[in-house]
Amino acid sequence: MDESIFQAYEDEIQALEEEIGLLTEKYEDIRQESTFFSDEEILKSIKSFQREAPGEAKGHESPSDLIAQLESLETDLSFLMEFTGFHFTSHSKKTVEKTRDRMVQKHRLSGKCHSLSFQLEFQLLEMQNNEEVSAVVSDLSIIMESREDSNVSKFVSRTEEHGDLLTFFRSLSTYAEWYEHRRRTFLHFK
User: Fold this and answer.
1) Coiled-coil annotation: which residues (predicted)?
2) Strand partners, 128
3) What are the strands of the beta sheet with 86-98, ordered from one edge?
4) Single pTM value for the model
5) Among the residues of the chain, which ranges form H helices?
6) Which residues pair with 92 in a beta bridge?
7) Cβ count near 51 (within 10 Å)
8) What is the rounded CA–CA span in Å between residue 188 and residue 163?
9) Region for 27 from its dihedrals, namely left if φ exceeds 0, alpha if ψ lies in -120 to 50, beta otherwise
């Protein structure tokens, strides 16, 4: 065979390998992005799956098992929302950088705690050393509906500086609960 034909095949193989790599990376990014779906969308997807492949579920859990699991998860989520007062309305994440031992993801999260709305944006750096994984929050940005209280503004500013999400959620939960009590009390006297 001619050497030029060999080279043409090698070039085509190289181009296809690069395309496979790009498509794999794109697939991983899409797979890692998460959003909350409504109950109707989830049930629609389950019903669609049941219609498309009624006999193909061999080796996988049956649709009734999946529905039972989904209902159990929804019950757990409902309990946690009632218990904590947090109701998350949207969440998305995007992988910004990924190497063998380090990954940076950008998260956007919004929701309500009792009657106070909030939005968060932050970057999460996960590093793996041997078998330990450590995570660091950076570039934290908090937007809250109720910033007329100067103490809340100071708290939000301090939290953004330190990137302390746990303290934010704990404090917001307590503040929002008492904010709701104060609001109801003032409505009672009006």
Assistant:
1) 6-33
2) 133
3) 86-98, 102-113, 116-129, 132-144
4) 0.57
5) 3-32, 39-52, 63-84, 150-162, 165-189
6) 108
7) 8
8) 38
9) alpha
Count, residues in the chain: 190
Take residue 102 and report the two structure tokens written for it.
Answer: 């380090």
Nearest to 88 by CA among 34, 160, 125: 34
The token duo for 68 is 């039972």
Token reading at 173 = 């939960």
Residue 35 predicted with pLDDT over 50: no
Quick one: DSSP state of residue 115?
A: T
Q: How many angstroms separate the CA atoms of 109 and 130, rounded?
A: 30
For residue 39, give the amino acid letter: D
Buried-exposed string 58-93: b where 16+ CB fall within 10 A, e elsewhere: eeeeeeeeeeeeeeeeeeeeeeeeeeebbeeeeeeb
Count other C-beta atoms under 10 Å from residue 168's C-beta.
21
Closest by CA position to 141, among listed 125, 160, 124, 116: 160
| Tokens (6 digits) for 92 | 């998305």
Give me the sign of the Cα torsion angle 185, 187, 188, 190: positive
Q: Are 163 and 138 in contact (CB under 8 A)?
A: yes
